[in-house]
Amino acid sequence: PMTDKPRVFIYARYSSDMQNPMSVRDQIDQCERFAGKKGWRVLERFEDSAMSGASDQRPGFQAMREAIA
Q1: Which of 2, 13, 23, 51 is most solvent-facing, going by the fewest CB within 10 Å?
Q2: Are 51 and 16 in contact (CB under 8 A)?
Q3: What is the spatial distance between Cα 52 and Cα 4, in angstroms, rounded to a whole number?
Q4: What is the pTM of this model?
């Protein structure tokens, strides 16, 4: 049944204004394909654009943490 599938979130980020914003969409697309192959159910997608991974104070990342909690 559908409820037996692992439930996952997708989080994508790129770090600087010099990178292509499409990279976030590409990351999400790749993750969705991977989840589909594994039979996982994607509950939600989160993203942060042009934000360093050095800090966890990113809006998309924080929203994902809240959703997990």
Answers
A1: 2
A2: no
A3: 35
A4: 0.79
- Dig out the tokens for 55 from the structure: 């800090």
At 18, the pLDDT band (50, 70, 90 cuts) reads: low
**pLDDT value at position 64?**
95
- Please give the Cα distance from 57 to 69 (Å, whole number): 16
> Taking the C-alpha atoms of 19, 66, 33 and 49 in order, what is their torsion angle to the nearest 10 degrees?
-10
| Residues in contact with 48: Cβ distance below 8 Å, sequence separation at least 6, in sequence order | 12, 13, 58, 59, 60, 61
Contacts 24+ apart (CB under 8 A), 20-25: 21/49, 21/50, 24/49
